[in-house]
Amino acid sequence: MQRRITNPKKFIFANFSVIEQRVLLWMLARRYRIFIFVSVIILLLILPTLPYLNLFIDKNLIIFLIFLSFIVIFSPETKLILSIVSVFLVLSMIFYLVEETDAAELLGNYVYGFLFAGTVLYTLKLFKNQHK
Amino acid sequence: MWKSKIFKDKFLVSVVGYLTLALAGFWFLTKSWFPQGFVIAGHDSGLALDSKKFLESRLWAWDEHLNFGQDNALNFGSIILHFIDYIFSALAKSEFAGNQISVFFWIAIIFSSALTFSLSLKKSLGKTFVFIFPVLATFNFYIFQSMFMLERAKYGLFVATMVFLAIILRVIKKKMGVFQGVCLSLILFFIFNGGSLWGLPLYGGLLVIVSVLFIHTLVWSVFIKKMDQLKRLVAFLLLVSLGFILINSYTILPSFVKFTYGEASSLFNQETIAPNKAWLDYISQASSFINIFRLQGIPDWYDNKYEINLNHPYAAAYTTDKLLVLVSFFFPVLAFLSFLLAKTVTQKRLISFFGLVVLISMIFVAGTHPPLGFIYNFLYENIPGFAIFRTPFYKFGSAFFLGMIFLISFTLSILINSFSGKIISVIENNLNLIVWQRKQKLLSSKIIFNLAVSLLTIVVISSWFYYHKVLFSPQIFNWQKANTTKINIPNYTKDFKTWAESNNINGRILLLPPLDEGWRVDSYNWGYWSLSSFPSMFVFENTIANDVSLNQAERDWLWELYTSIEQGREERVLILSKKLGIDFFLVRRDISIENPLFNLKKPEIFEGMLDSFNSIGRIASFGEWTVFRVNIERPGKIYAASYLVEIPRDQFFLYRDLAESNNIFLSSGKKKEDIPNELIIREAKSYPCKSCLIEELETNTVLPRIRVLPNSPLYLLKKIRERTELLPAMDDEEKVSVYLGFTMRRAGEVKQMLDFREREKYLLDDLKVINEYLAIVNQLLFSGSFQRDNFEQAKRMIQVLHPIEANFRIEVDKARSGTFSESVVNGLTDVLWQINRIKKFYSFVFEDAERWAKEKIFDINIPDSNSQVLLGTTYLPFDNNGVRVFPKEAFLVKDDERVPLEITRRSEDMLEMTPQKSLVGETRLLIIFEELENRFNFLGYKTEDVPRGTVGCYYGSVKKFNKTIYYRIKVIAANANQVLKLFVKEDREENLPLTYFLKGQREIDIFPILIYKPFQFIYRPTTTLEYLSIYVCTESKELPEIKEIFVEEIFSPNVAVSRADNKSIAYNLPQVHYERINPVKYNVSFDGGETPFILVFNERYDPLWKIKGDDDTVQYKHFVIDGYSNGWKIESLNNTKLTVEYTPQKFFYSGIIISFTVLVIVVSGIIYFVKRKS
Fold first, then answer.
1. B289 → closest Cβ in A55, A97, A109
2. Best to test chain A binding among B225, B285, B289 (most A CBs inside 10 Å)
């Protein structure tokens, strides 16, 4: 605490550089995945502009598919998925309490999607590890 | 020995103590719910009110005490359930199945089986899990949602699912042998089999769990490349499935026989599936994922997607109380936190399995609710048999709740253990006293840990109870705030039961007044409310009421009898009572007459009428109930009959006109040879009113909305489809119909292209094709094969052409301002010209169409010169004094010849008319009525408030309004230059002052307003209200200028042609003697008499009722008599002794042998395994 007050600039920059380094390393290790993810996002954003597909693809579905593809492509830790789910649940609760039930329901649907993808990934990882 | 072993195992001691404590708690809880005399009864619980007699009735494939008899073969599976009911009734010394001991048993068995399940996973999941899981599994909204009707079948399968899971998981892990597991599972599914075959959908949850387990094990085996677990699972499931069929043969065999005779067709029939779809959507309206995650979404809780059912005793509290809502959002967090807390491979595998069970079962639990509702929809509409899952939440909920509770219990148990560990370290570091005590060996860390775990477990369980506190109150027996199934049955009903049983009643007892025809429930002011009438569940005599189980013919007969009593027509009451085998009338004065939901008739009316009859007298009174007896001789249940009147099966309503002849009606089948022709004394056939089709015609102006327009690349597919559909049209009528269909669709395309300002090329192409099609239609019409006075064809034409004409006229008007090119306007005008030509073709029908209000045309067939025309009076209109309006004159018209009809007989129900000159074959009947009186009662002018301001109105009421009749309202304006609106308003009282804006059931803009022609509107009453007001209002305070409003009934009389065969042979019918062996078997013998004759068996018709004699070669034709009972044609008396038998009973006996054999094998197997282990 005392150190932060005496030399705050140094502290922040030191940390920034560490964070930057970590982010870069993370990106480097997942460069192909990031490319695939960005491509998928672009594809998903183009989809609703196509005739006929625009009849059943709405923005909620696109957002959901983007989140889902993130989970599938990056296979994040269970902890991260559960953290996202918790945030969505908290938001859903807030919407529910202010009687915005449609928004609460939409977030609930996202939660379902994350949990489904997360559980399948969890199961496959578990089985894979056992095989090893 | 075993005692000492138990006491050595401290954990086992604590489990036994825990179970004992829980059971004691349940006992006192249920005791507090049921004070002396109170039981659960009613709703559609199936809880017997005399459990012994109910169990006895379940042992027979036919239940003769319900209405006209009812099949019971599909209910054999509930024998075990009702046996359990009977045992607890005997223990409770009560005849009612819904007693306190029964309720205690079902709560206790759910808890115990949950404890068994959690105990089986103790090693993998820890000891704390063992104590938490059973509480959560027992006390939740899924289980208690149906406590008001003690849904034993559901509870039984929930119990079976938990124990079966415990077995299956042990079998997979090789902790239990496959055969041992199979034996235990079979015993389990023998006892808890989901009740009758109607309980089959309750297996939905188990099906999901087993499917997920199979896939989970399959993927696991593939990944680790070891197939032993999968092999064990497959072998186990196959053996259990086979064993299930064998051990439940006593229910499966008779059900299979019944299904082969058509019961199954309803599961696959689109006509049954489609109407249930609306129910499915209704049930799924609040089953969103977010509600389900929160362990809610129970259909009873919601009125619609956004509104809570305020009638539910506790739904509002859990959905609006902010704290309770907040808590409910923790459930999914707690459940899925288990994924982070699982440490060992076994734990992870279990968590992943139950996680998948939760998520996959959610797709089913949510039903048709978005976003994944389309999956359920697809399965429901396309998978044969899936239609049994009409209530997804209840049928798949067991899998979801089991999975969620498993995950939540696991998380809580791990958190408790973790906190307890932390508590020890805190205590050890901070409290020297404890350290000293430890040193003195008074407290070990294990004891402190166990104490902490116990305390935290108690806190967790108490918190769960606190959240679910409503489940401990008697409110759970309220299925609505003001209605409960916990009732105290009055003593006078018991007195009636004793009287009925001691008097050896043979005939049927009709319940009066009838049940409300909308709800069809039996409801009393002391609380009973059920789809099954109270006397039928309590008094095991043959009672009849117009409840849900009647078929249409039975319902018609009963209504005829109810109406005849109400109208005081004694002779008809006696005829009908005799025909229906009714000996007694039970008038109940304690029905819920005050309940605004029901439209019940007053008991005093029936009581008064029955008292006024000479041949019917009151014989006993029991409090609010009075019994009347019919004092006439009537044939027994089995009797011989001679002549029959034949009417088509789909025209059973003719019985009303012909019943007085007291003959037996035969609804003819398709095969002529099945009908005993020589016994037909009269044939009658009904004909619909043709001109009435035009009268009731309501044309709409909406063209179909088209998605793929001609400028789309997909339009080619539509063109191909059009071509392929046009080709197979064979006859002219079919061709016209197909061309008109495509004309309509293309007109929709044109309209949309005009709205969207699409390229004219496409418009012109479409208009060209429409003109070609209409030209072909015109060509076909004028070719000679179509009749100009064919009302049906004319109606179909106008329904298709009117919207095209209305829309294209508007477009042509628009085009005058230069919106479209000349070519488009020409194309549209050509279409209008073609339509004009078609309408001209049917000028006979459409010109002067108002005359069809008093001239009714029928196309009939007169088979011979002895035929009469019967005009049913039921559908004739009334004048303003309530007197029926009869026809002025009637003619048969054939080839310009007019033959008048003379009224030869007139009764209350029909007019019999005979042609003055013989005219045989296809002919046209014209019935002419006087002009009907104006039913409008002008009350004056006044101003009324509407949302846009105050308006001036011309208003009045409709005299003698009848909510079952359609009305034609004609508004004749005195000035064409005004803006008028018609309000048609149904009221509870006549001329009721408005307490809100003027609002009608229908509000119609009067346009165009013409002086020479009245504006017409057909009003179809929509509600059950008794009065009708009509307002014609302007747009301002200025009063409307109205010349007259004319209101008249639209009526469609019922005409039949009857051919009487003057058979002079008076049959010498044999004396029939019969002996009732049991509900499914009767021995019949004959004395003297001649053949042929009809042997009538006055029980509901079922093809599985068979008749046989000593001579097996003789076949007896079996058909429906009177629309509901059984008849056989007896052509010779070679067999003087016959047996009438309901065949599914035999299959029940065969099934019992198989089931019993398998049961013995299974029990022996279990004994063998137990001995081997010991």
1. A109
2. B289
Query: pLDDT, tens digit, for every residue of B524-556?
Result: 999 999 999 999 999 989 999 999 999 988 998
B368: closest CA of chain A, how far (Å): 14
- Among B839, B768, B853, CA closest to B802: B839
Cα four-point dihedral sign B457, B462, B463, B465:
positive
Name beta bridge partners: B586: B511, B627
- In A, minimum Cα distance to B373 occurs at A109
Q: Which residue of A has its CA nearest to B306?
A: A101
B895: left (phi over 0), alpha (psi -120 to 50) or beta: left
Q: What tens digit of pLDDT does each residue of B195-251 get?
A: 888 889 999 999 999 999 999 999 999 999 999 999 999 999 999 999 999 999 999
- pLDDT-above-70 percentage for chain B: 93
Region class of B1143: left (phi > 0), else alpha (psi between -120 and 50), else beta: alpha
Whose CA is closest to A119, among B287, B362, B162? Answer: B362
Convert B835-865 into a string of H (helix), E (strand) and C (coil).
HHHHHHHCHHHHCCHHHHHCEEEEEEEECCC
* Pairwise CA distance, residues B269 & B650, whole Å: 19
For A19, residues 6+ apart whose C-beta sits below 8 A from its C-beta are none
The 10s digit of each residue's pLDDT in B973-1004 is 999 999 999 999 988 777 778 888 898 888 99
- Asked whether B403 and B357 are in contact (CB, 8 A), the reply is yes
Whether A126 sits inside 8 A of B224 (CB atoms) is no
CB-closest option in A79, A109, A130 to B340: A79
Checking if the pLDDT of B431 tops 70, the result is no
Average pLDDT over residues B321-334: 95
Tell whether the torsion through CA atoms of B178, B181, B183 and B189 is positive or negative.
negative
Q: What is the mean pLDDT of residues B279-285?
A: 92
**Where do we find the tokens 């429906």?**
B1120
Out of B223, B337, B359, the one facing A130 most closely (by C-beta) is B223
Cα B14 to Cα B108, B341, B524, B865: the distances in Å are 18, 26, 49, 94
Encoded tokens for B680: 């037909």
The amino acid at residue A88 is F
Residue A9 backbone zone (phi > 0: left; psi -120 to 50: alpha; other: beta):
alpha
Digit-coded pLDDT (tens) for B638-686: 998 877 777 766 666 666 666 555 455 555 544 455 556 677 777 788 8
CB contacts of B229 in chain A (<8 Å) are none
- Residues 6+ away with beta carbon under 8 Å from B692: B852, B856, B1050, B1051, B1052
DSSP states along B324-377? HHHHHTHHHHHHHHHHHH--SHHHHHHHHHHHHHHHHHHHHHTTT-TTTHHHHH
Q: What is the mean pLDDT of chain A?
A: 85
Instruction: Search chain B and give the residue with CA nearest A96.
Output: B325
pLDDT tens sequence across B1124-1152 = 899 998 888 777 789 999 999 999 999 99
- Contact at CB, B355 and A122, closer than 8 angstroms: yes
Arithmetic mean of pLDDT, B76-103:
95
- Chain A residue numbers with beta carbons less than 8 Å from the beta carbon of B356 are 119-120, 123
SS3 B682: strand
Q: Which residues is B987 bridged to in the sheet?
A: B1027
Contact B379, B280 (CB under 8 A): no
Beta-bridged to residue B486, according to DSSP, are B40
DSSP E strand boundaries for B624-762: 625-630, 638-641, 644-648, 664-668, 680-687
Using N-to-C axis directions, what is the helix angle for B127-138 and B392-430, rounded to 10°?
A: 140
- What is the value of ipTM here, to two decimals? 0.84
Contact check, Cβ <8 Å, A89/B329: yes
Q: pLDDT band for position B43 (50/70/90)?
A: confident
